[in-house]
Amino acid sequence: MAKEYWIHPAIGIARLGNSNKWFLGPEIPGETPNAGKTYKDQESPARVKKQGQRFRIYEYDTSGPVPKPVREIKKTDARITWHVHLVNKKAALREQLPPAAPRNPDLDPDSLTIDAGKVDLAGNMQKIKGTNLVGNFLDTPVQIGRIIPDQDGRLIVLAGNGHSEGSSTNSSLNFANNDGWFDDTADGIISATVQFRNWESHKTAKNARVICAPPDFAPAIQSPITMYDLALQAAIELDPALWPDEQVPVFATDVLPVLQRLHDLCWVDEDAWKAHGPDGNDNFLQQLHLLSDNTTDPSSPAFQLRRSIFFRLRRPSACPIEERRPDDPPAGRKNIPQLPDEVTLTPHQYGIFRKWSLGEFSNGHTTSSAPSSFADLPLAAQVVALDRASLDTATGASLALGSESWGIMAKTKTYAGPFRVTDEIPPGSLTMGNALPWQTGFYACGAGWWPSHRPGRVLRREAGKLVSTNWVRDIDDSRDMVQNWATLGFIVPDGQEQIETEQG
């Protein structure tokens, strides 16, 4: 049997926190990380816990036309050595990438690059507490991550502490570009070597990437366009056979998740509340009996509703203008998704909604349930779940500045295959176009830019009543955000609502 060893998830997301405590990110799509528990520690003042990303190694049989996973490799199977290379290249950005301008043009880029180097970690050593990943910004040491083995020899990557610092004494900071500043976000390459008892040694043929990103303050809410959607779009463009034109969408898995995300934005965005909230005219979750009906009768209420929603979607430039039929409803204002004006669904998503609008879909079930545990999944489903679960938590729009990553994630040349970043792209490249420091972009990009993890208007309980309030009400400006971001509250499910907790 021809064998290769692949790391999953192909792209993982770790998140900053200024606490030493941490929890793991999701490994099943739709799973809320750390659900039902606190996102801050109980010290005074309370600090934000880090969200760790776990990586696993799978052995693949590559003798057939399609590689198949045959087992997960753990420390009981082989000696595992992980190799991690994290880099922060933000301050050394030289490309003219609006809104990110060339930064620190008069300084040596190497001195501005926080490079922790390639660090090895023995996955078989149970007692290792972890290794800090540290580089230098000019002469200042900066910790941009930490790596730990779990009890089975897998790798856990923790992000930095959310610390940013700069030489500028200006009272205000630019929303994207601040010379003389650094932060401790990063991204990098995850590789590994597995050595079996017969001393046969294999290097992983499929490396993975990790992005160390800002916290997700609404962990149960996803963006209508996730980073998974972007990577899937790129994968289909590279290989159209992944989604043939004749493939029929399934309502429960291809349409309903987007409708659910649109509704969920109501808990973190004022415009989404007015449109998709409990009393909104576009509360699609109250119309599922019609939206899941795949009738092709143009006069039916279900057909008319589906078409009216489709015509309100902003059209991706790569998609042709839909020819209107005589029985189509009047065109509404193109205001879906409820994000900044230039944001659209991906062409793949848009194509699914076009078929759905015409009744060309399988109604299947109107709800879907996640497996009870990751271990319940068959191997082939495990690797798919890992690759999707991490990317579904990251925003795919808007990437004008980007939160976890920037416009590089939408380019086909970024990928060597489905969801795998090519090794030709060096570590540090996936985050270098984001705001420097991250808190300035986080403060400025309200008004619906990234509401799925950077809320705008939220609900909180006061004297037993729900009150609408500005999420950043106690943060005065970008410089204040640099110092006090950890005081912001988390938005979590509470019965039928999602409300702010742990603020302060």
Got a strand count? 21
**Low-confidence runs:** none
Measured distance between first and last alpha carbons: 57 Å
Major sheet attributes: 7 strands, mixed
Tally of DSSP helical segments: 10
Please identify the structural class as seen in this structure.
alpha+beta
Shape: globular
Average pLDDT rating? 94
Q: Quote the beta fraction.
A: 15-25%
- Rg of Cα set: 23 Å
Report on this structure.
The protein is of the alpha+beta class and 504 residues long. 18% of the residues lie in helices and 25% in strands. It contains ten helices and 21 strands. It has helices at 109-112, 227-238, 251-264, 270-276, 288-291, 301-310, 347-357, 379-392, 438-444, 478-484; strands spanning 3-8, 11-15, 22-24, 50-61, 68-73, 79-88, 114-122, 131-137, 140-149, 155-158, 164-166, 181-183, 186-195, 201-203, 208-213, 415-417, 420-421, 457-462, 465-470, 490-494, 497-501. The strands form six sheets. Strands 1, 3, 4, 5, 8, 9 and 10 form a seven-stranded mixed beta sheet that branches. Helix 6 (301-310) packs antiparallel against helix 7 and helix 9 packs across helix 10 (478-484). The longest helix is centred in the middle third of the chain and has 14 residues, at 251-264. The protein starts with a strand and ends with a strand. The model has no long low-confidence stretch (mean pLDDT 94).
